[in-house]
């Protein structure tokens, strides 16, 4: 299209900046998609527009600087010009952004874009005329932007020329998160379970226990498709609540074609976008983060895609795992991604509660000469990507499976995926990940890995040129139980004069070049034990050794292994179950359970779990908030599965108020129990300030690895609708001891935990309330038989994030943590305050001076009296003191180890701490001695091992 007679380059080579919709009219799908993309850093780097004597040079300055700060190159390119171009793109009735008038003289544009000045402009105009100078300025702007490195949030204007830097969203040392939520404008303000709640009535149930076992195998298709669904958004305004459906079958409910003959994209998009039938849709930013859960179910079949899908927070796409559906891009596919995972209403670091599982994404119908990315996955914690296949043609330089290219992001885990063909499997740029059980076959480059702390666990690379390009991994790369077959090079990295770019290989099988550093082969062949490149500490030498490649022995505990590898397990789908073995907990005759965020469901949930604890049963908790006033007991033989990050157990009441006698909200087994207890897709929280609430306690031990497990199950304290913590805990942690602790793995437990985020809120997901919350403890691990923690995070808890107390036989792969933002210099509470009743496992901070605010901050890891701990990939981040800047000098101590044996830490990273590791009270490793990555990097730390 034309602006003042001059053509504006298109976004992605096709989509142009359209004029605003007429007042009162609804934007077209095209306008809406463009607005969303512009709104959060998804438009092109160099849209140039001219209106009369004004040239607008757009360099992706976002309209919401509080969510995404000005790029560092802004002093070279006028912010006003940036905003002006955004104004032309975003001024529509529903954009939520109302820029003021803008008139920028051409001379200013010339000066900003080319470094010239008004005198030069006047001379040029007198010689060549205004239009010619406008044209030259446009060319200069384009040239300037093309030769600069890709800026924050940027990529080139066409899919054909776009180049993503692996370092693009690896956050700089000065990075600080600026999270905020979006108000839940259609919430039910009268729903206050902490004040008003009813008790579910009880009558005798006539349903016999053995009825759940009537069908011993699945003969009727996938149970999740067959059963009834009655989930809800518990805190939605009653005007809309009854008209909102969580579960959507794209074929039955929206008419999607699954034969592969007709375009299905529009129908699937309609399923994703649908809100209450009498209210706003899910793209409208009116339901906050937690108010719009949606399960988009794809029955088996092939879905022809002529355009892309856009996801929003609260969306989970689920396919039939018995016959995974295929999203197949058509030969005339018009976009450059098949799925956009990032919700454009939110920045990447606050894109939570999004999932995709049990599907195949296919680009083989698109020409090998066309640039296409199958999935944008610029999301963060409490997301799930599992059992997904990426099918691409071979011999292409332009098909990419997955990218994280649209913003900063803070993810934990991607697991159980496969990539076939393509130029690159995954192009990554972000903070940290563990990649578990991922295979690449015939992919030229498996992974371009930009990040601070990256772990590969149980992966396979075959028939490719390069497995892992780690030149953008600034901190540490840890590769465990991984195989390369027929690869040119397995790992390529950069040389470094600091502790950064560390590499740890543990049980790696490969023929040929295994590691190249700076283009030179450093290691070939297999690694039978552990190979360390970077700073290494051993008990025999308290001073680090800078290793260019040394083999050390890691004596793995046999109880943690399957064969020679660490045991891992895919999230269970229970696809072998028939519908007769699945019980919807809200549909048990005579024992009503509501999950409505108002009714006390404690007694009836316990009654059902006790009555139907047969090992052949699967308890399905539809989406909703289940209010409980006392402990929910999960007996041996129980399997529980929920919906869409929205099946929430929420504690309230006086039983959870005494911090001197903490009570579990959700107790799994009794001490000494052995058997099966599995929990998937659930959320645990509190509806009030409850200093005596221990959210989850696991006592039971698995008979076989994986029998006791939690998958994709998360904690949230505050920061959301349905909890008084959201509105009550806004300033002083002394007045907000919201929960005693998140998770306790007791001495008798043996559990497998994968993809778990323990989050005490630093911001309000559903509004703009400040959040200053004190949760006493993160994860307390005392288990001795065998414990697996894979892809876990524990953030903003007061005394510690991870505490291994007399624990034995523990394997972790990626443990990410952050200190509470309110701690540090200027805080109203110094540890252990505000907590006064300390458990024997709690650090008392007596090693710190009484007024030393930076010493009295939450430990990231505390290891005491433990043995045989194998901890791979530790991320220990601190950003603030008292919610303000601390200029990179924020916290004194990160990790404390004492009275322990056989402790192995590989790939440990810190940000803004003074001391990385203490042994008791003795400082062993400082961040300054191990400078690299996001602050400090230790490739290997072997304590008494």
From TrEMBL:
<feature type="domain" description="Rhamnogalacturonase A/B/Epimerase-like pectate lyase">
    <location>
        <begin position="247"/>
        <end position="469"/>
    </location>
</feature>
<dbReference type="InterPro" id="IPR024535">
    <property type="entry name" value="RHGA/B-epi-like_pectate_lyase"/>
</dbReference>
<protein>
    <submittedName>
        <fullName>Contig An02c0440, genomic contig</fullName>
        <ecNumber>3.2.1.58</ecNumber>
    </submittedName>
</protein>
<dbReference type="Pfam" id="PF12708">
    <property type="entry name" value="Pect-lyase_RHGA_epim"/>
</dbReference>
<dbReference type="InterPro" id="IPR011050">
    <property type="entry name" value="Pectin_lyase_fold/virulence"/>
</dbReference>
<feature type="domain" description="Rhamnogalacturonase A/B/Epimerase-like pectate lyase">
    <location>
        <begin position="593"/>
        <end position="658"/>
    </location>
</feature>
<feature type="region of interest" description="Disordered">
    <location>
        <begin position="1"/>
        <end position="39"/>
    </location>
</feature>
<dbReference type="InterPro" id="IPR039279">
    <property type="entry name" value="QRT3-like"/>
</dbReference>
<dbReference type="InterPro" id="IPR012334">
    <property type="entry name" value="Pectin_lyas_fold"/>
</dbReference>
<dbReference type="GO" id="GO:0004650">
    <property type="term" value="F:polygalacturonase activity"/>
</dbReference>
<keyword id="KW-0732">Signal</keyword>
<keyword id="KW-0378">Hydrolase</keyword>
<dbReference type="GO" id="GO:0005576">
    <property type="term" value="C:extracellular region"/>
</dbReference>
<dbReference type="GO" id="GO:0004338">
    <property type="term" value="F:glucan exo-1,3-beta-glucosidase activity"/>
</dbReference>
<keyword id="KW-0326">Glycosidase</keyword>
<keyword id="KW-0964">Secreted</keyword>
